[in-house]
Amino acid sequence: MSADDAMRAAARKLAAAIRDAEDFRACVFAIESEAAERYAELADLMATHNNREVAALFRRLAEIEGLHARKMLAPDGSAPRLLPAGIDFVGAETVSHEAMHYLMTPRQALALALEGECKAVALFEALAEGAADPAIRRLAAEMAVEERGHVALVQAWMTKFPEPEADWDHDPDPPRLD
Predict the structure, then answer these.
(1) CATH code of 133's domain
(2) Which of 42, 63, 70, 73 is most buried (CB neighbours < 10 A)?
(3) Nearest-CA neighbor of 23 among 86, 90, 114, 106?
(4) Domains of the chain: total
């Protein structure tokens, strides 16, 4: 099963668990909040390793995802209701810690972000196709459009950075673990 097929299967399962538009908003809030937290963690990790340029990129992505999450807040600023049991969205848009390298280049960091944004597009497109509730289909389609905008943004940023050199991960003074 390809990664895209797996995402579509997960989206179908998610669509079946989401009962109404409020469940959808709660799910989106959780997905976007998780993505913002992960980007912030990755920014801190890159800053720890003095990779300031990549840290700044991840901080910007954390801000963008945080704005996305805040769009799901109620008019009074309160968070959506809690997700009901059975809704599993874990990793829908997040970048894995395992994919990180302390010497990664900005382009590599953006490639990871692009992967996460593409996963989000696939998720919301599948929800827009598979949800029974027309309101959820509409909201999911709107989110897919926004996520495609994020994909375009990351792709545009990627053009500003060269491909990494073949020995990009060579460290003449590697960290000591003893």
Answers:
(1) 1.20.1260.10
(2) 42
(3) 86
(4) 1
Query: What is the rounded (10 degree) CA torsion for 71, 72, 76, 82?
Result: -160
User: What average pLDDT does this structure show over 97-106?
Assistant: 74
Average per-residue pLDDT for the chain:
82
Range of the domain at 58: 3-72+102-158
Q: In one letter, which amino acid is 81?
A: R
- Collect all residues with Cβ–Cβ distance below 8 Å to 164 and sequence separation of at least 6: 104, 105, 107, 108
Residue-wise DSSP of 127-168: HHHH-SSHHHHHHHHHHHHHHHHHHHHHHHHHTTSPPPPTTT
For the full predicted model, state whether its pTM sits above 0.90: no
Q: Do the Cβ atoms of 80 and 72 come closer than 8 Å?
A: yes
Instruction: Tell me whether residue 91 is in a domain.
Output: no
